[in-house]
Amino acid sequence: MFAHHIITVGLVGASLRLRFWRVGCLVMALHDATDVFLEVAKACNYTKRENAATAAFAGFAVSWGVLRLLVLPLTVIRGALFELPLVLDGRPPMWWGFCGALLLLLCLHAYWFAMIVRIAWMQIVDGGGRDVREDED
User: Fold this and answer.
1) In the record, which residues are listed under signal peptide (predicted)?
2) Number of H helices and number of E strands within the chain?
3) Where are the domains of the chain?
4) In principle, which of 44, 66, 107, 112 could form an S-S bond with 49, CB 3.0–4.6 Å?
């Protein structure tokens, strides 16, 4: 989880430094939009409102899949990979690191989405979802 924060903050900082403002703003907006559902689900869970928590978690899972696994790669990453080189007049070294960080962030999103799906599946099948990030070995 900490790597995600380092990459995201690095991308935002690099977007400011390199003047890729639109990319930085979109990365932050797409991440913040899913966090609303997560925080509502947590609050409902802590206050023992199971139906509301389940609905908020469903909204979180859907928003995560749509925003971070569809919108991010199809708009932000595609634009950075194919349109930024046209603006930059080539592919300077900074571009490679920036796009590499975006792709690494996408890989982390896919990994976490698999965990979200596991939690949802356990909720449906078992009626209870434990945190799959904490494996007992």
Assistant:
1) none
2) 6, 0
3) 2-126
4) 44
